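[step 3/7] fold_predict: job queued, chain A
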Amino acid sequence: AGEGKNPAKSQEGAEPMEADQEMTGAAEGAAPAEKKEKPSSEEKESDRKVNKLLSILQGDAPIKLHLEFLYSKNRTDPTILKNLKSSVETRNSVCHSAIIFTNALMHMGTTVDTFLREHLDWLARATNWAKFSATAGLGVIHRGQLSQGQFLMAPYLPSDGSSGSPFSEGGALYALGLMHCDKGKVIRDFLLQSLRNASSEVVQHGACLGLGLATLGTDDEEVFEDLKNVLYTDSAVAGEAAGIAIGLLSVGTGSDKTEQMLAYAHDTQHEKITRGLALGCALVMYGREENADALILQLCQDQNPILRYGGMFCIGLAYSGTMSNFAIQKLLHFAVSDVSDDVRRAAVMCLGFVMYSQPEQCPHTVALLSESFNPHVRYGVAMALGIACAGTGMKEAMNILQVLSKDAIDFVRQGALIATSMVLLQQPESKVSGFRKKLDKIVSDKHEDVMCKMGAIIAVGLIDAGGRNVNIRLRSRNGFPRLLSVIGMAVFTQYWYWYPLSYFMSLPLTPTAFIGLNENLDMPKFSVVSKCKPSIFAYAEPVEHANNVLTSKAPTAVLSTTAKAKARAAKKEDAKKSTSEKGKENADSNKMEVEGEAAELEAAGDEKKEEGSKPKAEATEEQKENPTRVVPAQEKHVHFLAGSRFTPINENAKSIGIVLLKDNEPGKELEVVNIPVNTEPPASTEPPPPEPFEYNSALD
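[step 4/7] structure written:
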């Protein structure tokens, strides 16, 4: 991924040099062929350095490295997905879609779509919008495949010659957006043309979402005009996506486009369009703080509850990660006073966006609200804790979520399960194992509410997301908000109204990787040391199918008549035995005591033997080869080996993320880690045709 752009960059870098040579040749009056010299070695080296810098700044190099890391370190357990599939009724479309979403999360960025290929008949049960979502899931699985994206999605994309299902075509366009998110220069024109050619509102819906993701933050006027044209068709489905897409296109710009968006939100009769535009306005005001106050006031005072709902998100995103007292007071005021449940839910939820920079402050701020009589407020508390405390494993947040996961209302339990998985992401397995058992019980319980079961299935996907190698990071390691993560989380919360938007959850997920690079941006073979027991931060053990970790065996039914008959027979047997056993009891008691003592001594001897045969105590440290997974809690324990050939250029650099290394033995032969990511579809097993031959009928 990203390699396809390098030739173009080298040409761009060479243009000024060639132009200078031509001007020099013209001035001297000599033939261009005579004077045109080959670039010197210094110029070539300069171009190479510029290309490397461009690949870093444009994001191509990090995307390629993360793709290779997620592909090579994928530890997804396929048995979990198979058990999930067998535990859910095939007729239940909500749970069916949730499992497809879970598969996409578990394989995010790994390029592994084996589960879908192996269960095509089961996958084919997805119809209409479920088919749209299933196709979009491929974009999450192949995220970062910038050079191969269109080739991978070709079977599903709209084509001139044939007309396929509009749901799979729309889903494929959405998938392209997810795949090229924030790096959509190569795919922009194709998505724009697909939007112009689309006649179905479903295809328009997918094209709008894909285009919004691909052109994220570019504020492209041409794209804005096309999205506005779709919006003005007044189609509920396409209009909602167009509203969100305009927000994504102009995210964080504070553009005056919000005036046109609000004007149309008041004119339209479709709630879906109004909601899309309200969220779009909030996205435009991302990070604007006081500059967004005028729009916040306008939205919060509107009579339409959907626009007030957008006002809550506008506060949350405008003051994202600022811990602003003004924003917190405003949200708490609406959380307890608004007449609309949707607005109250959004107000509490957006506290998470304002407070994620100091997650320890969030639990006690929302603790009282978690006891609210209103279930929508309680759901909002769960999601606020999930957003603010994601990946921290914070005990205070877990205590509140544990209570909410036993709530009487199904959707509150759903929110609590999803939020718990967000908080426990990349935590040591000792903390997570109890939660896994709880999910197992909920998924396998046939009498559990569908909403709660859906939340449990999504939680299974989140806890093992990205092959168990990713975490939710709403801010960078230096403390700055990560735009992609925050807006991804904001749009994900809209799954409440529209399930396909749940795929935005792939945006906040970032690899927990340590990747060391030399001056050529190659990964040299070397090790770092983790000074703690390997088992503490090890991957979860694979599930054995026989244990049914995610599909507990149901108890066998016993008829009441059978039980009564067995009880009568047992009573008769007891009566016969009691008379004969009374005489023997006294004689046997002494013998039993002696035998018991002997058995105890024998057991103690066996234990000593076992202790002697046990393996040695677990190592207190382990060496980890480049690249490797380093979870947040492990960062402080990972160090460079003393006397290592490679050391970080920045002496204060932590052993996390992408680290540039200094080679202390430059003359020595270098061994580089090479990870080829397989993007080709599986090769056909069809045998080759026979070689040409002549048929002679006389031989018959």
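[step 5/7] annotate
The mean pLDDT is 83.
The chain has 30 helices and eleven strands.
exit 0
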